[in-house]
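Key result, reporting period 2: structure in, sequence out.
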């Protein structure tokens, strides 16, 4: 899709009905690659999904406070050799933001329902930020559904507490504010939305990595009270407790069987590099690498290099 288009789609996929979707959808950087934006009716959730290309299915999961448009350029580059699928996850973008659960079990359930709806037994999985944590645990719980896994800007769930983490707390303080009922939604939606704007400034390598158009789309979505509440619930129910459980060693007795590549931006200071070692006993095939010129929002900072690293790991061709 190039520019803004209205997309209408209805068809039966597996056991799920793809309902009519009359949407104004912009996937700005996909050039001439055809793309389809549609709504899948999953159990208890209408989920927007953007797809392009054909071939091996590659599922792309976005971070916070983003949606599927995070991967627009990556999709364009990978669509020559793969079927790239980017959903808006629960609470984000064009997907429902229902009241209720935003915990690990719910998010994993959404992924299973999405794969079943698309008729996919197995996919290559790529995930960024909080969804990368979900991706690791999805690989542990459902290794039969994932062929290979690329995690972006989040370490395996085997990291241990380290004194170097003290320096990282200057970046992580905001999580507890966002996780607080009432306060969290206000921080996301209220006033000039200083906190989400601070996230974009602080965790990118360059001021223009997230375009003004993309930032406006993300900020505009957070203005909706239901989406602001969903963002707060995500931190309260999944991100903060999930990090604590990892630090306490909940997953250290489990082995990652899925071959995995972990990419960090060289300018990402959230997780000290000293903590990114000692995983050999926990994973059969795990590689950790770094992308120059990128920080935590690694896909926005260096989409071309991220696409090339993904393509190399998945043995796919990559466009230009």
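The corresponding designed sequence is given below.
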């Amino acid at each position: 899709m190039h520019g803004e288009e209205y997309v209408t789609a209805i068809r039966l996929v597996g056991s799920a009905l793809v309902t009519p979707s009359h949407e104004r959808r912009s996937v700005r950087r996909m050039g001439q690659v055809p793309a389809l934006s549609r709504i899948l009716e999953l159990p208890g959730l209408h989920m927007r999904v953007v797809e392009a290309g054909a071939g091996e299915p590659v599922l792309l999961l976005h971070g916070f406070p983003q949606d599927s448009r995070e991967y627009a350029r990556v999709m364009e580059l990978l669509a020559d050799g793969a079927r790239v699928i980017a959903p808006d996850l629960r609470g984000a973008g064009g997907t429902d933001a229902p009241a209720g659960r935003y915990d690990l079990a719910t998010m994993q359930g959404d992924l299973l329902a999405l794969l079943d709806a698309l008729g996919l037994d197995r996919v290559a999985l790529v995930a960024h930020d909080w969804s990368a944590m979900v991706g690791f645990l999805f690989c542990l719980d459902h290794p039969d559904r994932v062929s290979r896994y690329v995690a972006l800007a989040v370490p395996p769930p085997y990291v241990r507490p380290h004194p170097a983490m003290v320096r990282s707390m200057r970046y992580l303080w905001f999580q507890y504010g966002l996780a607080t009922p009432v306060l969290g939604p206000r921080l996301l939606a209220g006033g000039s939305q200083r906190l989400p704007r601070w996230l974009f400034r602080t965790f990118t390598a360059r001021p223009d990595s997230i375009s003004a158009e993309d930032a406006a789309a993300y900020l505009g979505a957070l203005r909706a009270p239901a989406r602001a509440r969903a963002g707060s619930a995500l931190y309260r129910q999944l991100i903060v407790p999930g990090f604590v459980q990892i630090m306490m060693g909940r997953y250290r007795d489990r082995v990652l069987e899925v071959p995995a590549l972990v990419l960090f931006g060289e300018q990402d200071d959230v997780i000290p590099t000293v903590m990114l070692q000692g995983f050999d006993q926990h994973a059969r095939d795990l590689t950790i690498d770094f992308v120059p010129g990128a920080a935590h929002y690694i896909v926005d900072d260096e989409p071309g290099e991220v696409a090339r690293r993904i393509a190399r790991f998945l043995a796919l061709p990559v466009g230009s």
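Confidence is low (pLDDT under 50) at residues 1-29. The chain has eleven helices and twelve strands. This case is discussed further under Risks and Mitigation.
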